[in-house]
Amino acid sequence: MPIRNRRAAALPAKLSRSWLLINAAKEEDFAPGLASEADSVIFDLEASVPDDQKAGARQSVMEALNGGMTAWVRISPTTSEHWEDDVAALSRADGLRGVMLAETERPDQVTYTAMHLKAGTPVIALVESALGVENATQIASAPGTFRLAFGTNDFRKDVGVSADPMALAYARSRLVIASRVGGLPGAIDGPTPADADDAATAEACEVTASMGMTGKLSLNRAQVDAVNKGLSPSEDELAWARELIEAHESGASIGDGSYLPRLTRARKIASLADSYGLWNA
């Protein structure tokens, strides 16, 4: 039986930084993906699988999830003829961690999907269009929504903008703010190209983090280490947090009005570092 990376398996999905997409038609990639350092793994039944291969890919996913593997699954949009088959099958999947709903544009699409799965199955709303971005707050507040994710490539096709961070800043901000309003974990950013090297991935993660997003999709398991590092507290942040917390525990006095907010920030960094195995590294 394939063994899931134990560190990643123990990490709550609300804290997942790297979200590795694996073509569901390539079952030989399932086990290596699950053994990788990806915080969360998604078997992709949607964009990466041609229509004439979806039935076979869906069967492979079901055999994997009922055979000891655990993973998320990206499913077809509610407007697709394949959506009903996807949710009908996955409602019987033992190892399903949740689904990512492609082309989410309205809140009812998330709720409708959740209603067709086992009770409590989380749904990540993948926003890939102008309409989805404009409805992000309502989507984030819909029953069933677990996190928001940004489908950058399809969004660019929909609105005709470039990949320049400035061109995508408005959409990213909308998802970040909507996630906050909806009480969700941080939004998940779109992927870098599958052939991007560590330097390019790290640069992309700087944009992701600067926009307030806390996760990132990945198309290549060779990128997940760079994503995890890029979306974790930095060494400087860890040193600052440790120093402030130690000083506070030693009886440091409150100097000004910024002290308590800084202490809260330091404790959040410490909590994340502990979850990611960095605090005592």
TrEMBL record:
<dbReference type="GO" id="GO:0000287">
    <property type="term" value="F:magnesium ion binding"/>
</dbReference>
<protein>
    <submittedName>
        <fullName>CoA ester lyase</fullName>
    </submittedName>
</protein>
<feature type="domain" description="HpcH/HpaI aldolase/citrate lyase">
    <location>
        <begin position="35"/>
        <end position="219"/>
    </location>
</feature>
<dbReference type="InterPro" id="IPR011206">
    <property type="entry name" value="Citrate_lyase_beta/mcl1/mcl2"/>
</dbReference>
<dbReference type="GO" id="GO:0006107">
    <property type="term" value="P:oxaloacetate metabolic process"/>
</dbReference>
<feature type="binding site">
    <location>
        <position position="128"/>
    </location>
    <ligand>
        <name>substrate</name>
    </ligand>
</feature>
<dbReference type="InterPro" id="IPR005000">
    <property type="entry name" value="Aldolase/citrate-lyase_domain"/>
</dbReference>
<keyword id="KW-0479">Metal-binding</keyword>
<dbReference type="GO" id="GO:0016829">
    <property type="term" value="F:lyase activity"/>
</dbReference>
<dbReference type="InterPro" id="IPR040442">
    <property type="entry name" value="Pyrv_kinase-like_dom_sf"/>
</dbReference>
<feature type="binding site">
    <location>
        <position position="74"/>
    </location>
    <ligand>
        <name>substrate</name>
    </ligand>
</feature>
<feature type="binding site">
    <location>
        <position position="128"/>
    </location>
    <ligand>
        <name>Mg(2+)</name>
    </ligand>
</feature>
<feature type="binding site">
    <location>
        <position position="154"/>
    </location>
    <ligand>
        <name>Mg(2+)</name>
    </ligand>
</feature>
<dbReference type="InterPro" id="IPR015813">
    <property type="entry name" value="Pyrv/PenolPyrv_kinase-like_dom"/>
</dbReference>
<keyword id="KW-0460">Magnesium</keyword>
<keyword id="KW-0456">Lyase</keyword>
<dbReference type="Pfam" id="PF03328">
    <property type="entry name" value="HpcH_HpaI"/>
</dbReference>
